[in-house]
Write a structure and sequence with these properties.
With about 575 residues, the chain is α+β, with helices and mostly antiparallel strands. It has six domains: about 1-120, no CATH class; about 150-235, Helix Hairpins, CATH 1.10.287; about 240-330, no CATH class; about 335-400; about 415-455; about 460-550, Cytochrome Bc1 Complex, Chain A, domain 1 (2-Layer Sandwich), CATH 3.30.830. Helix content is about 60%, strand content about 15%. The strands form three sheets. The chain has a five-stranded antiparallel sheet. Strands 9-8-7-6-10 form a five-stranded antiparallel sheet. Strand 7 and strand 8 (about 430-435) form a beta hairpin. Helix 4 runs antiparallel to helix 5 (about 85-110) and helix 9 packs antiparallel against helix 10. It starts with a helix and ends in a 15-residue tail after the last helix.
Length: about 575
C-alpha cells in the first residue's frame, strides 16, 4: 500500500518534468522573476511605517524563496537515479508544498482579515475529535507539569545524587581491589595492564565525584529557591488569585447569581399561579421542568462566557469537560431519569393528591415535584419531603373519603395484640408511645405499630366473658335465664358507669357443653369509657357470680362419668 502511494506521488511530481526539461531556462527565469518581484515589493515597503505592510513584504519574500526552493528540489528529483535519493527529494518537495500552502493562507488572512476556510459554507472540514479533545486537555497537562516541575526536578536530582554515590562506592571498591595487585611484584606486561585499569577506575571515580558535587550544588540551589518562595508567600499562589482565581470567582459567582435569579423568578410564577387558583396541570408541570433545565443550562453558559471573555482556556476546558461528563452520566442514567420525568409530569405510578404506602405508613402525596411533600394528618410532625427518586417502584391510589390514615390518634385508648391496654400519648412518623394505667410506657416504631393493627377502644368497644350454669336449669336456660342475667349485669354496671357510657348489655347462649350451659355475656361501651375496659371485664365475671347467688343457679364442676361393666 505504501509503495502504491509513493508511486502516485512520484507520478504527480513527474508530470511537471516535461515542461521543465523542454524549457531549461524556465526555472531560472521563474526564480529570477519571483525573487525580483519580492525584492521590489520589499524595497517599496521597507521605508513604510505601517508594521502590517512590513510583515506583508516579508511574507511575500518568504513565499518567493519557498517557490524557488521547490523548483530546485523538483529539478533535483528529475535528475535523481537512486531510489533512496528519489524518496528523499520527494519528501522534501511534499514538505515544501505544504509549507507554501500554509504561507499562502497566512498571506490571505493578513490581507483580508478572514480565512478562506471560513468560506466553506458546506462545512466540508472534518472534525478530528481526538485532536479537539487533546486541545482541551492540553492546558491541564501544562498546568500540572508547571506546578510539579520544581518538585520533579528536585526528586530527579536526589535520584541522580544517589546514583552518583553508588558509582563512587563501586569505583572505590574497585581501586581497593587493585591495591593488592599494585603492591605485588608484577612483570612489565601485567603492571602496564594494571596501571591502565587503575587509571580507568580513577577517572570514573573522579567523574562520579564531580557529578555528585555538581548535583549537590544544583540540589542546594533549588531547595534554597523553594524555601525562599515559600517564605515570600509563593508567587504562583498569588498569581493564581490575581488572574485565574479571579476568573474562577467571577464565573462561579455569575453562575450562582443567574441560577438564583431564575429560581426566584420561577418561585414568583409559582406563587402567582397558586394565588390565581391555576391547577398544576400537565402543561404547567412541563413548563416548570423545562424552566428548571433552562436555569441550569443558563448558569453554565454564563460561566463559559465569562471564562471565554477572560481568555482562561484552562477553566473553560474544565467546565466543558465537566459538562460532557455530566451529560455522559445522564445518558447512562437515562432509563431512571425518564421514569423520574414521568413522575414529575404526574403521569407515573405515583400521582399528586393520592395515597401511597411509604416505609410501612400511608401518606398523602401533597405536592409532587423534584422534592415531593408527604403528609399524614394523624401524626405529629406528619409532613416531610423526599427526593423524587425515592418514589421509584411505589404505587399510589385515590383515598376513600372516610379512610383512616392511622390506627389511632393522640389520646386514644388501644389494645395491642398481646392484650396490653394503654393510652396513646404521642405518635409521629418515627414512633408511637403508649402509657398504661399504672404508668408503664411502651414505645413502638410507627410502621410496626401500624402493621400490628391494634384495637382502638376509643371508637366504642365490646367487653365479653363466658359463663356456664348447670343443666338443672335447662328449662329456663333458653330465655328466662339470659334475660334475668342481662338485667342483673346491666344494673351492676350502671353503678360504676354513666348511663351514656353503657350502650348495651346482652347475654346469649353460646354452647351446650358436656357439663354446663355456656353463655356469652357482652357489654358495649362508649369510647368515653375506654379507660374502664379492664374494670368492666372483671366486673362482668363478678356480676355473673352474684346473679347465680341471687337466683340460686348452680355453677357446675367438670364431671367424669364411669360406667361399670356387667
Amino acid at each position: 500500500m505504501q509503495f502504491v502511494q509513493e508511486c502516485r506521488h512520484l507520478t504527480a511530481v513527474l508530470t511537471l518534468l516535461p515542461f521543465l526539461m523542454l524549457s531549461p531556462s524556465v526555472n531560472s527565469e521563474m526564480e529570477t522573476d519571483t525573487v525580483a518581484d519580492a525584492d521590489s515589493v520589499a524595497n517599496e515597503t521597507t521605508s513604510a511605517v505601517n508594521p502590517t505592510l512590513q510583515t506583508f513584504s516579508s511574507m511575500l519574500k518568504a513565499r518567493g524563496d519557498k517557490r524557488a526552493e521547490l523548483a530546485t528540489v523538483i529539478t533535483a528529483l528529475s535528475g535523481a537515479t537512486d531510489e533512496v535519493e528519489q524518496k528523499t527529494r520527494r519528501e522534501e518537495a511534499e514538505q515544501l508544498q505544504t509549507e507554501l500552502g500554509e504561507l499562502e493562507e497566512q498571506i490571505g488572512i493578513l490581507a483580508t482579515g478572514v480565512s478562506a476556510a471560513e468560506f466553506d459554507l458546506a462545512g466540508g472540514q472534518a472534525i478530528d475529535l481526538q485532536g479537539e479533545l487533546e486541545q482541551l486537555i492540553q492546558p491541564f497537562v501544562i498546568m500540572l507539569k508547571s506546578a510539579t516541575e520544581e518538585a520533579r526536578q528536585i526528586e530527579y536530582l536526589k535520584h541522580k545524587k544517589l546514583t552518583a554515590k553508588a558509582h563512587i562506592g563501586i569505583a572505590e571498591k574497585a581501586l581497593q581491589g587493585l591495591e593488592v595487585l599494585d603492591s605485588a611484584d608484577l612483570d612489565e606486561e601485567i603492571a602496564v595492564e594494571v596501571a591502565s585499569i587503575k587509571a580507568n577506575w580513577q577517572e570514573k571515580l573522579a567523574d562520579a565525584t564531580d557529578l555528585e558535587a555538581t548535583i549537590e550544588h544544583q540540589l542546594t540551589a533549588r531547595l534554597e529557591a523553594q524555601q525562599r518562595e515559600s517564605e515570600e508567600g509563593g508567587s504562583t499562589f498569588g498569581d493564581f488569585f490575581k488572574d485565574r482565581g479571579l476568573s474562577l470567582l467571577m464565573g462561579i459567582g455569575a453562575a450562582v447569581l443567574v441560577f438564583t435569579l431564575l429560581k426566584l423568578l420561577g418561585s414568583v410564577f409559582s406563587y402567582a399561579r397558586t394565588r390565581g387558583g391555576v391547577q398544576r396541570s400537565f402543561k404547567v408541570r412541563l413548563s416548570a421542568l423545562l424552566f428548571n433545565v433552562f436555569s441550569v443550562v443558563a448558569a453554565i453558559a454564563v460561566m463559559l462566557y465569562i471564562f471565554n471573555m477572560r481568555n482562561d482556556w484552562l477553566l473553560l476546558g474544565l467546565v466543558v469537560l465537566l459538562s460532557i461528563a455530566i451529560l455522559w452520566m445522564g445518558l447512562k442514567m437515562l432509563p431512571d431519569m425518564l421514569e423520574q420525568i414521568t413522575l414529575l409530569l404526574n403521569l407515573g405510578a405515583v400521582q399528586e393528591g393520592e395515597r401511597v404506602m411509604f416505609e410501612g405508613v400511608p401518606w398523602l402525596v401533597k405536592k409532587l415535584d423534584f422534592y415531593t411533600d408527604f403528609e399524614n394528618p394523624e401524626l405529629t410532625g406528619g409532613t416531610f419531603t423526599v427526593p423524587v427518586r425515592e418514589l421509584l417502584g411505589l404505587h399510589s391510589r385515590p383515598a376513600a373519603p372516610d379512610e383512616a390514615w392511622f390506627p389511632s390518634r393522640t389520646g386514644d385508648w388501644v389494645k395491642t395484640e398481646d392484650g396490653t391496654i394503654g393510652k396513646i400519648v404521642f405518635q409521629s412518623p418515627e414512633m408511637v408511645q403508649m402509657v398504661e394505667l399504672g404508668g408503664a410506657r411502651h414505645t413502638f416504631s410507627a410502621p410496626a405499630f401500624f402493621e400490628s393493627a391494634p384495637t382502638n377502644l376509643s371508637s366504642n368497644a365490646r367487653v365479653e366473658v363466658e359463663f356456664g350454669v348447670s343443666y338443672k336449669h335447662q328449662a329456663i336456660g333458653g330465655t328466662e335465664l339470659p334475660e334475668k342475667l342481662a338485667a342483673f349485669v346491666e344494673q351492676g354496671l350502671l353503678k360504676m358507669l354513666d348511663r351514656d357510657a353503657l350502650l348495651d348489655v346482652n347475654v346469649e347462649l353460646l354452647a351446650c357443653n358436656s357439663s354446663s350451659l355456656d353463655y356469652e355475656v357482652e357489654a358495649d361501651l362508649h369510647g368515653s369509657a375506654a379507660h374502664r375496659y379492664e374494670d368492666v371485664e372483671r366486673a362482668l365475671t363478678r356480676l355473673c357470680l352474684e346473679a347465680c347467688n341471687e337466683y340460686g343457679w348452680e355453677i357446675p364442676f367438670p364431671q367424669l362419668v364411669v360406667h361399670k361393666g356387667e
